[in-house]
Amino acid sequence: MPNARQEYGHLNLDDKLTPFLNAVNNYFGLSNKGDFLLLASLGLKNPECVDEMRNKHLTFTKGKEFIDGTDTYFDQAVDVLITKYVSMVGRDNLAEVFTSKQLLDKYMSELLLIANYYGNYLIQNDFLAYKTGVTNNQANGFVLQFGNLINSLKEDTPEF
Amino acid sequence: MELLRLELINYRRLFERTVINFAQGDKNVTIIRAENGSGKTGILMALLFGLFGTVKYEQFQIENDSDFMVSSYLLEKSGSQATCTVIVDFLEDGHKYQIKRSVTATNTNGVRRQSSDVDTSLLEDGVNTGWDKAKIDNFMNNIIGENIRGFLFFDGVKYTDLFKQNDTRTRKELQKIIEKMLNINDLDQTIATLNAVASSIGQNSSNGRLESDYAKAKNTLGEKKTAWDDASTALEKKNDEITEFERKQQESLSKLAGLKEYEDTIKKIKDNRNRLEILKNSESTYVSLLKNSTKTMLKNTIYKTFGWDVIDDMSAIAQDSQGSLQLLETIVRRNQCICSDHPLSSEEKERVQKYIESIKADQQYHYSLSSSFRYDVTQIQDAEDVTSFDDAMAAAEKYYNDFNDINQEYNSLLASLPEDINLEEVTDSVIESSSNVKSFEQLIERAKGELPTLKQNVKDAEAAYNEAKSKVEQLDREKASASGQQMKFDFIKGASKKLAELKKRYLIEAQQSISNRANEFFLSLISDADKQLVSKMILDEDYTIKVFDKNNVEIFGQLSAGQKLMASMAFVMGLTAEASDAKPTCNFPLVMDTPMSNLDSRNRGSLISLMPTVVKQWILTPMDTELTDTEIDKFIATGKVGNVYQLLKTNISSKVVHYNSLNEIKGGIRHA
Fold it and tell me: Which SS3 state, helix, strand or coil, does residue B504 take?
């Protein structure tokens, strides 16, 4: 049984995210942190994706760019995702996670992997067209497609 | 005059001996076909040089007489000196003449210099006249005056230009040409002489009062003449100004008319372009709206998706720890462990106490976290910007659709325009032309407003001049009568007046006759389609060319370049015909350089069929594109072509080749 590196390594997964993320950034004006949040939250809504990620130890080279941003707009949203993820995994005390840099880094890395993994999942499935690059026409269509995706995310939200 | 033969030796590119025989009699057309730069115009120049000793002629765009005529190739080859000779044989007044002109050039260490001396000789019926250059030139000028050479060497571009501007200069030039052509200037001289003789009769009368009055009157006459001239010039200037404005206005109008066909399309294109421009400008607004909405949307979605879960989780964790806390607090209160009777040691008590505190802190943390999330989530729930994403999406979608639709229409409109129309130029010139039309309208109106005053000025000045003139005449007569020669004076003065009247009548008749002939030629030259538009062409008393349409509206300004060329040719032909009747020796050949370049094939056809019948000799130097197989067939059909030549060029020289028939030069120029 090949390990994850052998299985996925040659795919250069995070490289393939680039055109996709460029399109997201161009038309939705999200920062790297925004990309990370979008993909990570989509991944968290997908428990299979979380399991998969946790069972396969993939290495990404560009993942850090997702969260190394000065965009403070999403900071609270990052907190929500970490809280949710920690409670999902249920291993560590939340207060400790938020006060320990080591723990925080560990959970962020895992979330990063989820985001990467889900991004790649999108490329392989929903956004097959963006695998090699994005043309202007595709990008125009993408605006609507991606808008629908966000809308679907909104629809899943419970009513307050 | 009839041209017989042109011989060139060492002339420019044609450094071999070249002979061109001109067709005469029944077959009176000589064709010399050539490509650009092969020396086509050079042959006409040689003809002009041979006949008149000058190549200074505006249509050749030659700066001065010293333009190089000696073959430079030969000059370099032959060493220090070479001579170029031009010989023209012609018939005039029943005699055969041969005029020969030679010019020498030297080559000193690569510096080439052409002598300004032209060696000239003239043979009359084979006998050398022995005249010097000045006499020969004078003789030639008498055969064809300088002004008439313009017709001998008809240049389409020049005459179209002349006919473009109906201004005073043109009118004066036309009048001069006509008067000279019809030899009316001889009459003028006679009248002037008679007047001078009349004035001289009473010269030096002994009457001092009369003499001083006469001197005063002469002086006044001079002043009045100057005043009259000034007033006339001012009026002419104004008239020319108006003509120029009208011409420019007409130009703009016809430009507009040409574009009218595409006006709607261009209007729509411009409209679409503006809309696209507006959309493009507002694109950034849509995009930033969408970007901001997306950002907010994403953040809110994360809160809405996970926020409630997180709050629940936090509450659950805090709730879970509540039971343990109660148990631990009971242990502390009872000071004994649940599973044993022993009281707690102080060490154990401290540990439990610490544990309670940590649970309390943890619980507190979860409570605070949950309440902070709750606050955030509530905020987001109340926020209206969640719906703004949908609006932004809809706006963006509409923007893209609109843009695509308009762009599509714009492109298809662009595609519907003819390929050679440059939209930028067209739209610019539409805007420019319509604004020009308006501004010229104002200028014309203003200038026309000044006309009555100027006209009155001229009238007053003329009246003053005439008064002064009659005063002088009266004194002339008094002086003549004082010397007892009043009868002689009256007789000569009467003769001069009669002659002046005659001249006037003759000129009017001639002008009318030229006008009629030109009109006839013009109508036979223009196409049937044009005949539907044009009713007649006239040369009026002011020597203004006028072309009228069916409704008698003057439309000269609206004629196309080809039509104007036809009008100018018709005028030349009318003039030639009139001059032939007036003075048979003026019946001269018509030489045309690239005569048909501005004409369409139908106009070429009518020119080809008509021209040989109205001129004595027709010599033309068409380019290969002007004389294609179509035109050759038309020439063959006339049966009037006598001699056919072609100028073939190599790198350093050109060669004139004679052909026996037009059929031989079919299929374009073949290079050796």
Answer: helix
- From B539, B503, B613, B649, select the one nearest B190 (Cα to Cα): B503
d(CA A94, CA B555): 96
- Please compute, for residue B428, the number of CA atoms within 13 A of its CA located in the half-sphere on the CB side: 5
Q: For chain B, which domains are there? A: 2-144+617-665 (3.40.50.300), 203-262+429-484 (1.10.287), 265-416 (1.10.287)
Tell which residue, A113, A100, A127, has the closest CA to residue A66. A113
Check if the beta carbon of residue A110 is closer than 8 Å to that of residue A81.
no
What per-residue string of b and e applies to B189-208 under the rule 16 or more CB within 10 Å gives b?
eebeebbeebbebbeebeee
Contact map slice: A 87-146 vs B, CB within 8 A: 87, 93-95, 140, 143-144
Best residue of B279, B293, B298 to probe chain A, by most A CBs closer than 10 Å = B298
* Whether the Cβ atoms of residue B661 and residue B644 lie closer than 8 Å to each other: yes
Q: Do A29 and B292 count as a contact with CB atoms less than 8 A apart?
A: yes
Task: Say yes or no for a CB contact (<8 Å) between A93 and B362.
Answer: yes
* Residue B6 backbone phi and psi in degrees, to 5: -125, 125
Q: Please name which of B568, B595, B569, B572 lies closest in space to residue B40, comparing C-alpha atoms.
A: B595
- Report residue A14's pLDDT band, with 50, 70 and 90 as the boundaries: low
pLDDT tens digits, residue range B278-299? 888 887 888 788 888 888 888 8
CA distance B67 to B82: 15
Rounded distance between C-alpha atoms, residue B22 and residue B426, angstroms: 48
Residue A21: its chain B contacts at CB < 8 A? none
Report ipTM (2 d.p.): 0.84
CA dihedral of B522, B528, B529, B534, whole degrees rounded to 10: 40
With CA atoms as reference, report the closest residue to B429 among B254, B255, B250. Answer: B255
**How open is the CA angle B57-B58-B60, to the nearest 5 degrees?**
75
DSSP conformational letter for B417: S
The token duo for B318 is 């805090």
pTM: 0.47
CB within 8 A of A80, min separation 6: which ones? Answer: B302, B303, B306, B307, B310, B373
Each residue of B307-333: pLDDT tens digit? 888 888 888 878 888 888 888 888 888
